[in-house]
Each structure stands twice: as structure tokens, then as C-alpha cells.
């Protein structure tokens, strides 16, 4: 799609079966869509993957604009992702960083190549599940076996891949009856497996909540699921809302995007350059216009899907020089402020968390997790990579390397500092 924009201009119209669509990788056009006309383009299309894998588009990220989305967003911003609540988990994040360093040190002492996807995926998962569920899935405090933990990690990656699939049935409805590649069948399988896990989690927390109430023991910091269970439901739908928030908005989104970004990067300028060259996903989650409008002088009908090409944006030669070179210094602030803007997306040149009404509410947490991991890994180890690293990417909702990144770590500090 970036090639189409290079050839035909900053805004390209596509007719995808029965659906009108536009795509762009131009920052000025993106600003027009996500800022000036945010109220027009802030909805989401109801794709088959979102219906199956996000509880009927019932979460914050994939729900169409409307009262349900506003309620879910309000729950996130007022009860889950407040500054006070995120700060209350600072000690747990620091502890998980220590576990990460100890794990890498143990492998480095044996002279083993380190699978960064594995160790960073576990780091991201543990940070999120400790906040969300009050449990560790990997490491010394794990409450599940390694097989079960790896299985859930595998399902999470599979979910993201399916959400990123361009499924013909979304654009040619009759195709759903054929489903020659088994995409919908696979979605239903993942849906059942994920729902089974979430039902178990919510029932465990309901049982724990009742026990606490019976024993008059309500002290201690509540995890996110406990907070959700304490909120009044909406027409008896609180159970589905909890599971939707657990899966997509908390575990899946925070784990997969943070792990993918960590794997590519190894500092704020480094992180921003990593977002430019290897964004967590090739496109932002598609937007959809709620009414007719005009963009760049062109008429855009209602229900038009918008594909913001973040991969093409980072390689737009009108914005960046030497697009294939990794040059963090290009992001150094020219005003001497000493800060590199990462998460706000104010310049619309790099959008790791989108912008406008549909910006990821967990952006500050995501940046914090990535920077903590990178800073400690750089400080504690010297890194060398094997020759001929495979840099092929897999396209889906996120964009991990096709093959895991392996590297050798050499401890830089005294041995007792890694304990």
C-alpha cells in the first residue's frame, strides 16, 4: 500500500469487495483524519476476527463508537490505568526487571545463545498478569506450569495473527460460506480456548472476593480483575466486559506489542527509531467513518474503512533520509529540551499508540515497560549477535520477526549484582 501512495498520492481510495477504503502514509493526511476529523473517523469496522476474538467487538480497542465503547473506555481510564494505580505496581515492575536480568545472567554464564523473544515475552506477560490477575505466569513465582504458560503465550500470539488477517469474508460476505483456508474455523477454536481461560480467571477472582468478604479482609491492593468485579454491571453484561478487557485490552495488547518492540530494540531515541523502522504492527487498527466527509478535497462516504500505514510511514522518503539505516540520533531534540517524544504521536510521523479518541490508553505503561527492560539489559550486559540475522517480519495485527532473535550476552558487572 505504501507503493500505491508513492505512485498516486498521499490518499489512495480502494474498493475492497463491497467496502470503500482509503489508505495513507502521509503525516499531514493522518493528522487530518486522526485529529481534525477525529469525530468522523473514530469508529471501528465489525470484522469477523473482532466478533470472534474480542467478545463481539466488546472491548475498548475494537468496539465501534457508541455508548458501550464510552463506558469501557471510562472504566479503563478511571479505574484501571490511573496514574495512582499504575504507580502502585512500581515495585512489581522493578521485581520483574530483576527476574529478567537474573534469567539472562544465568543463561549468559552457561555461554548459551539467548532467545530474546522468549525472555522478553515472559517479562511482558508477567508485568501484565501481575497487575491484571495478581499472578506470575513465568519465573520463580509462577502459579501455573511452564507448559500451560507457554500455551497461553502461544494462543496470545495466534490471536494477534488472526486479528491482522485480511479475511475475504469481511469484504465479500458470500466468502464466509466457503472459508476455503479455514480462517473462521481457526478463529472459533482460539475463541473457545481463550474463553475457557478467562472463565477460569473470573471465577477464581469471584471466589476469592467472596472469601475476603466472609472474612472481613478487604485490605491490600486490588488487581485489575478485582477492580472490575467491584464495579456495577451494565444490564448483566459485566462478565463479558471483564473477559473482553482481560483478553484484548490488557493481556494481549500489552504483552504482544511490548514484547515485539523489545525484541527489535536493544533510551528514548533508540526506542523511537525502533518504532520507525519496526512498528509493532504494519497498520493501526482500521478506523471507520461514521458519516460522509471530505479529506484532501476528496469525498469520503460513510462506512469507509481507513488503513493508516505505520510501516510505510516510517519509510516515507518525504519525511526520512536513509530509511534503511538505524540512526537514533535523527530523533534528538533540536530545541535542547533533552526529551524525545514517543507516545503522544503529536507530530504524526511515528504512531506506535495511534492518536485521537482511539489512542491506546495504556501507552505510558507500554513505554515504561519497554524502557525499563532496555535500560537494564544495556547496563548489565554487552551484547553480540550471530552473523546473518534474519530480519524477515511476519505481518499480522503485530509484526514480530519471522524467526526469534538470538544473541549472546556477556555480564558487565560484578557477579553479586545479578543475584
Automatic annotation (TrEMBL):
Taxonomic superkingdom: Eukaryota
Cited PROSITE patterns: CYTOCHROME_P450
GO molecular function: heme binding; iron ion binding; monooxygenase activity; oxidoreductase activity, acting on paired donors, with incorporation or reduction of molecular oxygen
InterPro entries associated with the record: Cyt_P450, Cyt_P450_CS, Cyt_P450_E_grp-I, Cyt_P450_sf
Pfam family for this entry, one: p450
Keywords: Heme, Iron, Metal-binding, Monooxygenase, Oxidoreductase
The keyword Calcium is assigned to this record: no
Entry cofactors: heme
Binding site for heme: 360
UniProt record similarity statement: Belongs to the cytochrome P450 family.
Protein name: BnaCnng08630D protein
Organism classification: Eukaryota, Viridiplantae, Streptophyta, Embryophyta, Tracheophyta
Gene, per the UniProt record: BnaCnng08630D
